[in-house]
Design brief:
The protein is mainly α. Helices cover about 60% and strands about 5% of the residues.
Length: about 500
C-alpha cells in the first residue's frame, strides 16, 4: 500500500485548509513531534530543530523540488538529531519518526455499493440496446450493420466485449474481417449470455479506462508500444474499426507507419496488406469518409511487400505455397487498387526472373505474373516453361512444383492454345512409373484449381495432342461395385493416415 499514510494524511489536511506550503508545514510538525519524544532520552536543542527544517529545505532545492517531501524530512532528522555513528548506535530517533509517519489510525474500506465506471458503462449500454442481463439464459440477436446505424453501434458494443475477453458474447454468423472469412456477408448474428464473471472481468480491466471503448483503445495502445508484427498490426486496425474506436488511426499514425517500415518479412507484410484491403472495404461500406486513412497505408504496405519479394527465392518446401499465394494477391491488387502500381511489381518480377537460383514453385508463379501483365506472349511463355521443365529433368519434383506455381495464376493460358499443355504433356510422358508416382502429389495439386468442366476440356485437349477423338474417351459412368471399392479404399486410406499421424 501507500508508504507513510499518516504523513500524507497531514498533507491532505493542510491542503484542504488552504495552506500555501503544506509540505513544509507538515515537515515542521513531524520535526517538533520527534524532538519532543527524544528530548526525554537525549538532549535536543531548538537550533537542532531549526537545522533539521533547513536541511530538509536545502535537500528539496538540491533535488529540484518546490517543498521538502517525506524523504527530505527523514534525511533532515537523521542529519541533525542522530548523534554519533549511525551504524554503531541505536537510532531510536528514526524509529520513532518512521512510526509516526506510518501512523496507528484505522481507516475504512470503501462501501460495497461503489461500482467501477466501466461496469456502469456496460450496464448503461445494455439498457440502451435492450440487452437483458437479468437472466443467465442464452439469447440471440441479428444485426444489419450496413442499413441500420443503431445495429452498427450495437455491433461495436459486442465487438468491444469480445475484444476485452469478457465471455459475454460470441459472433456465430457474419463477416470476420480479421480472418477474411465471410467478408461478403452484411448481417451479424450474436449469441450472448450474462453471468457474474462478465462484471468480474470488467472490474479487472477497469485500470485501462472508464468505458468499454476507452479500455479497448488503451489495450491497443499498449500493444502498439510493444514489438508487434505487421500481421498483428493489420488485425489490430480491423479490431479498432469494428469496435468503433474514434480517432484511433489519426492518433497513432506514426506508430502504425513505424511497424510497417521496420518489418523485414515478406509473408508478414503481405498478410498485413491483405488485412488492410479488408479494412478499406469495410470502411467504404460503413462510413466512406474515414477510408481515406487506409489508402496511403495500403500504398506504403504494398511498396514494402514488393521490396521484400525476393525472400521467395529461398522459400522452403513447407512455406513455398504461402509465398506464391501472397504473390498472387499482390498481382490482384495491381488490377484493383490505384495505389498499388503495376509497374513496381513488374520491375521486381523481372529482376527476380533474370537473377540467380529460385524456388521452382515461386519461379512458376513469377513467370505467370509476367505473362498476365503482358510482358511476354504465349509463345515466349511456352518456351520459358519448356526451358524450366528441361532443366529439371534430373529433379522432376521441382518441375512438378513449378507447374503448380504456373497454374496458380496462369491456368487460363492452357486454354489459349496447345503450346503450354504440349510442354507439360511432353514432360509427363518422359517419366517412368516410379518418377511419376514421386511427382504425382504436386501434379494433382497443380490441377486442383480447375473446375470440373475445365478438367473435361483439358482431357479432350490432351486427347487431341495424342490423336485420340473425344468420343473415344471413356465416359464417367461408375458401377456400384466400383463405388463400393472406392469407398473401402477411402476408409483404409483414412485409417492409415490416422495411424501415421497425418492430417486428413
Amino acid at each position: 500500500g501507500m508508504p507513510f499514510p499518516a504523513y500524507y494524511q497531514e498533507i491532505w489536511k493542510e491542503s484542504r485548509a488552504g495552506k500555501s506550503v503544506p509540505y513544509e508545514k507538515t515537515a515542521l510538525k513531524f520535526i517538533v513531534k520527534t524532538a519532543r519524544f527524544i528530548s526525554k532520552m537525549s538532549p535536543v536543542s531548538i537550533p537542532d530543530e531549526v537545522n533539521a527544517l533547513a536541511m530538509a529545505r536545502s535537500l528539496a532545492n538540491l533535488r529540484g523540488k518546490g517543498q521538502p517531501g517525506v524523504y527530505e524530512l527523514i534525511d533532515g532528522v537523521q542529519s541533525c538529531f542522530v548523534k554519533g555513528d549511525i551504524n554503531m548506535t541505536a537510532v531510536f530517533e528514526l524509529d520513532y519518526l518512521f512510526r509516526i509517519l506510518s501512523g496507528i489510525g484505522a481507516g475504512s474500506v470503501a462501501a460495497s455499493d461503489i461500482i467501477p465506471p466501466i461496469v456502469i458503462n456496460f450496464r448503461g449500454l445494455c439498457r440502451e440496446y435492450r440487452i437483458k442481463i437479468s437472466t443467465i439464459e442464452k439469447q440471440e440477436t441479428t444485426l444489419d450493420i450496413v442499413k441500420n446505424p443503431h445495429h452498427y453501434s450495437k455491433s461495436c458494443f459486442f465487438h468491444q466485449l469480445d475484444f476485452l475477453g469478457t465471455g459475454f458474447c460470441k459472433r456465430v454468423h457474419g463477416p470476420d474481417y480479421a480472418s477474411g472469412s465471410g467478408k461478403n456477408l452484411v448481417r451479424e448474428i450474436w449469441e450472448y449470455r450474462y453471468g457474474p464473471s462478465v462484471e468480474t472481468t470488467l472490474i479487472d480491466i477497469s485500470v485501462y479506462g472508464v468505458t468499454l471503448s476507452e479500455a479497448c483503445g488503451s489495450i491497443m495502445e499498449n500493444k502498439l508500444k510493444q514489438n508487434i508484427s505487421a500481421a498483428e498490426l493489420g488485425t489490430m486496425l480491423i479490431s479498432a474499426e469494428v469496435t468503433g474506436i474514434d480517432g484511433f488511426f489519426e492518433k497513432y499514425q506514426n506508430q502504425i507507419y513505424d511497424v510497417i517500415d521496420r518489418c523485414g518479412n515478406f509473408i508478414d507484410i503481405s498478410t498485413c496488406l491483405i488485412k488492410l484491403r479488408y479494412l478499406k472495404n469495410l470502411q467504404n461500406m460503413l462510413h466512406p469518409s474515414q477510408a481515406a486513412f487506409t489508402y496511403p497505408l495500403i500504398k506504403r504496405c504494398f511498396e514494402k511487400s514488393v521490396e521484400l519479394l525476393e525472400d521467395g527465392r529461398g522459400a522452403s518446401e513447407t512455406g513455398e505455397r504461402e509465398y506464391c499465394e501472397k504473390l498472387a494477391s499482390l498481382h490482384a491488387l495491381t488490377l484493383e487498387e490505384d495505389m498499388c502500381p503495376k509497374e513496381l511489381l513488374r520491375d521486381k518480377c523481372s529482376l527476380i526472373l533474370s537473377g540467380g537460383p529460385c524456388n521452382s514453385r515461386f519461379y512458376g508463379t513469377l513467370l505467370a505474373v509476367h505473362f498476365k501483365q503482358g510482358e511476354i506472349g504465349m509463345e515466349q511463355f511456352a518456351l520459358r516453361i519448356n526451358a524450366m521443365l528441361t532443366s529439371s529433368m534430373n529433379k522432376p519434383e521441382d518441375a512438378a512444383s513449378f507447374i503448380a506455381g504456373v497454374f496458380l495464376l496462369g491456368r487460363d493460358a492452357v486454354f489459349s492454345g496447345n503450346e503450354v499443355l504440349a510442354e507439360i504433356d511432353r514432360f509427363v510422358a518422359g517419366m517412368d512409373f516410379d518418377t511419376f508416382m514421386l511427382v504425382l502429389p504436386n501434379l494433382r495439386y497443380a490441377f486442383t484449381g480447375f473446375l470440373p468442366s475445365e478438367t473435361d476440356r483439358l482431357a479432350k485437349m490432351v486427347a487431341s495432342i495424342h490423336g485420340i477423338k473425344p468420343d473415344e474417351l471413356r465416359g464417367g459412368i461408375v458401377t456400384q461395385d466400383e463405388l463400393a471399392l472406392a469407398m473401402l479404399l477411402d476408409e483404409q486410406s483414412a485409417e492409415a493416415m490416422n495411424q501415421w499421424g497425418l492430417p486428413l
